Amino acid sequence: EVQLVESGGGLVRTGGSLRLSCAASGFTFEKYAIGWFRQAPGKEREGVSCISNKDGSTYYADSVKGRVTISSDNAKSTVYLEMNSMTPEDTAVYYCAADSLWSSYGCLYQGAEHAAMDYWGKGTLVTVSS
Fold this sequence. Notes:
5% of the residues lie in helices and 48% in strands.
């Protein structure tokens, strides 16, 4: 059974940090691009960052560039999203998703549509208070 399980969400103050984790199982982790996406209330889901486990390449949305780092631990089949200098605009449900065909670039800019990625997690809520 394929699973993507997000964890690490919660409440943080403006300027604070969080590390989200996405634990994967049931597929060949090393052959997939893994992305983090978020959906704020009343807004469409958007790409935050993606990493290709095939070549290690990463891409970041302009809104988080310089504040966010994505990393992958193949031994643990887990992808992390380290977020710093957080603002209320970062408040959203954060999802991880996996796809066997997208590059990290394609994952970020095409992956937000549910059908565009092979697998999705159920999400973890991040709330940034002002």
